[in-house]
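pls design
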């Protein structure tokens, strides 16, 4: 598949996982040359039988999820992730492109270079195993108090750059535009999978966040349920629509733009603002001016504009804090695209990005207090107006 800007090339890794190259440079974008598509690693099929405690082969079982009867929330159980790769050296990072002659030979990308690449996570918290489905539920310990089902979703990794030392904020508008194309592509395809109710594209950045692979990358989760925070936003949006006949997210954007004091930046198609009830020491939302449900719904003009605006925003975030010598401190953050759910209640949603950080001051993290962790009663350490003022100052 080729668009005006990006060429998408699909292949399969040695264990059966999907991998997609998204190219925006020649000779690949025109099809004059193709990235390496074969995976030479001697990996077993990921659904192959596994040895049991007695050594006899047992059918592969994917992760499960259990329903918390106190909250009604699904909790995936993915114990195999305890053994995933943790902070590897640059010459042994599985997200780097292959390097002929290198000691490490178990990287996830077969080619020696790439622009943007997406592949199924090798250690997924959610996984659709052939022959099992969401209807294959059971009772934990034989009690109907605790329901369980296969965690039949999908987890993908999005590598933003082949440069291990780079970051999303350093990729440039052209590459950012390719990443946006990849996010939209994956949202569209994953939303069409059976049983998927929500698609969430996100990035964790920085060791303070708990990142295990420092290579510039993000992830895409396709959930077989609607996540708790999204459920809460759906309830609020439904109540607002019933009371006013309007979309809550639209009204919030209009209200922030009218107030102006918390607006960080505006472009032709996008506005970034610090929400009036923000929780984190640094938090900002980015929303399109047009009502759009999800990333695939963005027009070319909106995607082009987003590629510039997002990089502007990330630059400001990286200048939010400065060290004693006056140098900027790269901000650890979590960013995620809130999109309309796939099924019932889809019309209540509206696309927007949330970026937040746990860093409350140089060298100081926000640790959740007992009331925050225990009962979710949040206490902000600052004010939204102060956050917005600093982000306004951080413009170049």
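designed seq:
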């Amino acid at each position: 598949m080729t668009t005006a800007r990006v060429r998408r090339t699909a292949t399969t890794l040695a264990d059966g996982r999907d991998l997609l190259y998204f190219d925006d440079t020649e000779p690949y974008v025109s099809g004059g040359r193709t990235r390496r598509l074969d995976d030479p690693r001697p990996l077993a099929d990921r659904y192959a039988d596994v040895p049991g405690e007695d050594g006899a082969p047992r059918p592969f079982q994917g992760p499960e999820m259990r329903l918390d009867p106190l909250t009604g929330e699904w909790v995936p159980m993915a114990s195999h992730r305890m053994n995933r790769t943790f902070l590897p050296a640059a010459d042994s990072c599985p997200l780097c492109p292959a390097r002929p002659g290198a000691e490490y030979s178990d990287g996830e990308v077969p080619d020696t270079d790439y622009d943007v690449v997406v592949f199924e996570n090798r250690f997924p918290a959610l996984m659709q195993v052939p022959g099992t489905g969401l209807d294959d539920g059971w009772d934990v310990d034989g009690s109907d108090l605790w329901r369980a089902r296969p965690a039949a979703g999908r987890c993908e990794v999005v590598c933003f750059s082949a440069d291990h030392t780079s970051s999303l904020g350093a990729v440039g508008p052209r590459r950012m535009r390719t990443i946006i194309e990849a996010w939209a592509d994956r949202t569209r395809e994953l939303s069409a999978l059976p049983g998927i109710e929500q698609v969430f594209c996100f990035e964790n950045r920085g060791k303070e966040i708990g990142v295990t692979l420092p290579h510039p990358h993000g992830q895409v989760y396709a959930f077989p349920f609607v996540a708790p925070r999204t459920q809460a936003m759906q309830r609020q949006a439904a109540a607002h629509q019933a009371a006013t006949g309007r979309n809550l997210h639209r009204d919030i954007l209009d209200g922030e733009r009218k107030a102006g004091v918390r607006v960080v930046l505006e472009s032709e198609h996008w506005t970034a603002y610090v929400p009036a009830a923000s929780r984190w020491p640094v938090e900002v939302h980015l929303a399109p001016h047009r009502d759009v449900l999800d990333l695939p719904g963005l027009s070319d003009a909106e995607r082009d504009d987003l590629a510039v605006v997002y990089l502007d925003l990330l630059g400001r975030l990286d200048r939010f804090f400065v060290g004693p010598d006056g140098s900027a401190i790269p901000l650890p953050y979590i960013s995620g695209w809130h999109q309309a759910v796939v099924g019932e209640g889809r019309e209540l949603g509206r696309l927007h990005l949330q970026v937040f950080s746990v860093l409350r001051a140089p060298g100081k993290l926000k640790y959740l207090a007992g009331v925050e962790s225990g009962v979710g009663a949040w206490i902000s350490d600052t004010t939204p107006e102060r956050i917005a003022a600093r982000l306004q100052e951080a413009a170049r």
